[in-house]
Target: diguanylate cyclase
Amino acid sequence: MLSTRRYLIQLLLLYSLILICLFLGYRLLLDYPQELSAAEAHQKRELESLSRGLQMGLRNLQAVTTDWAHWDDTLAFVKDPDNHQDYVEGNILSSTFETFELLGIVYFDRNFDLVMAQGYDLQVGEYVSIEQVVDFRLSTLFKEQIKPGEPWQSSGWLASRQGAAAFAIQYISDSAQEHPPAGYLLFIQSISQNQIANLEATTRLKLNFTPTSLADPVTHGVVSLMTPELVEGYKLERRRLLDDFTGTPIMLLSITHEPLTDMQPIGWSEVLILSSMILAPIVLALAVDRRLLKPLRHNTRLIETMVERQTLEPLSQRLHTRELEQIRQAFNRSVDLVERQQAVLRGQSMTDALTGLANRRAFDQQGAEMWNLAVRQQESFTLALMDLDHFKAFNDNLGHLAGDEALRKIGRSLTKSCRRANELVARIGGEEFVLIMMGLEEQTARQRMEALRTDISELGIAHPQSSVSMSLTCSLGTIHVPRPGINYRAVRIEDLLSMADKELYRAKDGGRNQVSFHVYQLPQAGPDAKSAKENLPED
Ligand SMILES: Nc1nc2c(ncn2[C@@H]2O[C@H](COP(=O)(O)OP(=O)(O)OP(=O)(O)O)[C@@H](O)[C@H]2O)c(=O)[nH]1
Model:
């Protein structure tokens, strides 16, 4: 059968398995996908706002370009540049480039032929030629975009010599815009660190712009920023391409999202939750094992040992729950009951039912103990065997019941005569009693024996058939050992009893109603066990 401990372990394993399945199922199928799609939506919004931010920059540039392109002065300059050099001197200033962070300003006529172009190095703060800013062959590209003379405006990005740059182009007209396009004004604006910092602040992204080209392998598989789809799903770092107005990639943006949460399906927090959910019942089970099962196992072992040794003892270790403690107490009460019953049985097995005196078994046990004690303490030891005289005739004459009553009376008399702690009276046969007295001098022992004898006859139990007396009498065979020492160790109580029996025989033989008293003494000089045996009286 399964032990409770094993059962607990199996339950725990099952619980852990179910828990892990439920937790992983919930996390992977329900919770994590939700978390992921929320994070993806958030990242998509970030990309959109980045795209919008860049578009906004273009719109601002477009606004400035439009403003300039629709000045009457600009119109006049494009129409007749040679006579309007003051326009250049008054407007194409280093402060203009720096205020709008411009890398170049270019004026085309309505056929897209160059009227005037000025480049500017923002880092050094100096005018440079437009060729130092951009590859000016781009004007042909613009030409391909429009029909010359159309009221055309556009903005976007282009590759400058200093990396990607924004541009805005606007047809030139009068302030009322009634005049047909007389030319085109192109502003080229750098994407400055300031602009990047502003974009980072508004989008909460970390941005890194690096120039690139179609030939650059890093551009492969990277989508354009202007289609801000979250093609790769949730990712902390991604790349996007900025295309120029012809759709050619010119800049690679490395984008780092600010992490919302730890977006792992199973992260530390999940491991922590799961392990604490598994650990808690393990700790609980350990506590149950320690507080309940361990004492239970201990007590079971104790009971098994008791069964092996055929003993019974109360269980002393308290148990920690009421029900278990009740079982322990019930067991202890049973032990107590059995012990009491055993004591009664022991008493019964040691007692003569008729007289209430010690019986043969009790004499064998206690007599031996008393003899051993006498030997150890060198205390004189007197053993007497008493037998009623002509008791058969008594029974035959007066009946068995009268015989029993006589035996009871004699028992009471003997008990009264031998009530000291170191004295014993036992009924060891039908009408045979044995008496032990310790610590008596020979003389006193003799007197006590005589007193016993007379006590019985003085009970006055009529015995008409007796040849000895009118009342019931007894004969005593007594062995007195004055001071048994260590040399008496080989002598057993049975030996003394058989010596007393011989003395009893003598008393009977001598006429009954008398005491035959024998002093049994070994030679002083330390006889060994063999010599003690040898000194036992002959039959
Ligand atoms: N009433 C009664 N008689 C018992 C009991 N036990 C033994 N007796 C009787 O005691 C008698 C003993 O008789 P014997 O052993 O022949 O000896 P006796 O008649 O006493 O003769 P002596 O011992 O030689 O004096 C027997 O008749 C037994 O039946 C008992 O418990 N009750």
Notes: The longest strand covers residues 163-172. The chain has a mean pLDDT of 90. The chain is about 50% helix and 20% strand.
